[in-house]
Amino acid sequence: MHAALGNLEVIYTIFSYTQLGTLPALASTCGAFEHPALNILWRDLPSPEPLIQCLPSHLFSTDQGRIILQKPPDSMIWDTLFKYTSRIHSITATESFRLTAIIEPLGSIMLSCPSAPASLFPNLRKLIWSADGTHGAAEFLRMTLVPSLSVLDIRCRFASSAFLSVLSSAGVLCPHLQDMALRIQHITDEPFRKISPFVTQFISQFHYLHSLLVCDLGHQGIEHVMQSRALRSLHLDLRRFWAPCERQSCAELPGFHDLTSLGLSTDTLKSASNFLSSLRVVESKEIKVEFNRVPSKSEYTMLSQFFTILKERCDTDRLEGFTLIGIYGKVRTELSVFKPLQACRNLARLSVERGCNISISDEELCQLVRDWPKLEVLKISCYDPVYSTTMPTLHGLIELLRLCPILTSLALVIDATKLNGIDIKSPDGGRRNKYLKHLDLGNSLVGTPLKVALIISGLFPNLEQVNFDCLDTMQIKKSTRERRASINSLLSSFRIVKERFTEA
After folding, report:
1. For residues 289-324, b (16+ Cβ closer than 10 Å) or e, as one string?
2. Which of 201, 202, 448, 467 could form a disulfide with 171 if both were Cys (CB 3.0 to 4.6 A apart)?
3. Packing angle between helix 449-459 and helix 394-403, nearest 10 degrees?
4. Nearest to 260 by CA among 224, 235, 225
5. Which residues does residue 128 pair with via DSSP β-bridges, in sequence order?
6. CA 121, CA 81: separation in Å to the nearest integer?
7. 8-15 and 31-43 helices cross at what angle (nearest 10)?
């Protein structure tokens, strides 16, 4: 054997590029290959099924497509199973007919384990469960909640009482858990109220939890989350279960401190506003709000109130990024509703993705960003219908770059047909933005492609192309598509000329 194959690092590198079907053969080739091959083969399981497949077939029988455990494994079989399970670092379970067939016998085998659960999966770091929380699933979950677990992602349409009971012990069984997501869908308010105490119990026991995604836990549950000093990233799904009257009747909550990111998913902006109103303070570097429902005529007023409340509750010196996403429909609004954000002097990222149909003039755009010299990412109204709003022009874009000189990403619908007064040779008086790597002009109006391309190239010398992403691509005229394509073709040509000039 070549000396290089005696180096474990070399072997692991080679085996990591080997097809999974070849690894069992490599493991049986020689002792030097066995451990590295098995470690890679079993490290990340895309399904729990291999745990059944590695066991002798005489342990099972089938009945109408269901696998039934006939007798428990003996000591030799357990030794074989331990040999494989000790190598597992992650398990992913996805709802399927096959998973439904194997989960009950697998759960029965797990329960018959003669050793403690931690000895069966001593190196398990990550569990992703995207299937129903049945009784059989509860038995399997019980064996995978081990001290080494650091990531737990549960996505269920249904959760049995047994599954919830096991889950409630995660705080004790997984003391080092750092990232957790819990999504239980398609449940009404009443079952959710029964689930909340189970979830609240184990969340209050985590001392090292850094990231949490969970649905509304009610007043008591939210208070427990606020007491978690290690928590840095929090996403609350307040849709469907959240009752405005209940939240408003609650006493004011202390709020969140030292967060890196806070995300809220709500049905309406009003729900988000009422939730923020119930908090004394929100200290977070990033805030992201998603709302679902088609906006009503009163949503414009609600949007204005939302930003007013946001200014009152959040730590404006700490906030560096804000994202607003509307899933369905759009709120017709003016740029003035965003003025409360001007108090956030350290804002570096502002993204309004869908949900708002914003009218913006050059003067309004510049007035908005004037207090954000640190702005790096700006995304506003990039999918708006261009004929129903006032749009900034290239003049406004040039002034924007002067006010925000370190922009790296910009998404903005503009009117690129008004070019009078712009020096094509030096659009910004010789000042250039060398940081911008992404420019999305959405459904912008485009004038003469050559002039627009020369201006963009002059402003952004390192930009490779312009994106014209638009939801209604089928309604765009052929001539418009051709003009947009010409701009990118010209930018590519300019870049080639520059490279050749540099080489010369």
Report:
1. bbbbbebeeebbebbbebbebbbebbbbebbbbbbb
2. 202
3. 0
4. 235
5. 92, 153
6. 10
7. 50
Query: Cα separation of 61 and 224, whole Å?
Result: 47
- The neighbouring-strand residues paired with 211 are 179, 233
Task: State the pTM of this model.
Answer: 0.85
Q: What is the DSSP letter of 237?
A: E
Rounded-to-integer distance, Cα 251 and Cα 253, Å: 6
Does position 477 have pLDDT exceeding 90, yes or no?
A: no
Q: Calculate the CA dihedral of residues 383, 387, 390, 394 and round it to 10 degrees.
A: 70
Q: The tokens 């040509």 sit on which residue?
A: 493
Quick one: how far is CA 98 from the chain centroid? 29
Residues 6+ apart with CB under 8 A from 441: 382, 411, 412, 413, 414, 416, 466, 467, 468
Please say whether the beta carbons of 121 and 150 come within 8 A. Answer: no
Alpha carbons 110 and 112: distance in angstroms, whole number: 5
pLDDT band at 151 (very low <50, low <70, confident <90, very high): very high
Which token pair is 359? Answer: 């009218």
Q: 338 and 306 in contact (C-beta within 8 Å)?
A: no
Q: How far is CA 277 from CA 237, 272, 283, 430, in A?
A: 17, 9, 14, 47
Q: How far apart are the first and last CA of the chain?
A: 52
Q: pLDDT tens for residues 312-370? A: 999 999 999 999 988 655 666 777 888 899 999 999 999 987 767 777 889 989 999 99
Report for 163-167, 214-218, 372-376: range of highest mean pLDDT: 372-376
Quote the pLDDT of residue 457: 92
Q: Which amino acid is at 467?
A: N
Q: How far apart are alpha carbons 310 and 342 in whole angstroms?
A: 12
Going by C-alpha positions, the residue among 162, 44, 157, 158 that lies closest to residue 107 is 162
| Residues 218-259: tens digit of each pLDDT | 778 888 888 888 999 999 988 864 444 444 444 578 999 999
Q: What is the distance between the alpha carbons of residues 314 and 280, in angstroms, rounded to a whole number?
A: 9
pLDDT for residue 429: 77
Taking CA atoms, 69 is separated from 98, 101, 343, in Å, by 15, 11, 65
| Beta pairing, strands 66-69 & 60-63 | antiparallel
Angle of helix 299-313 relative to helix 269-277, nearest 10 degrees?
A: 30
Total residue length of the chain: 504
Mean pLDDT (the chain, rounded): 84
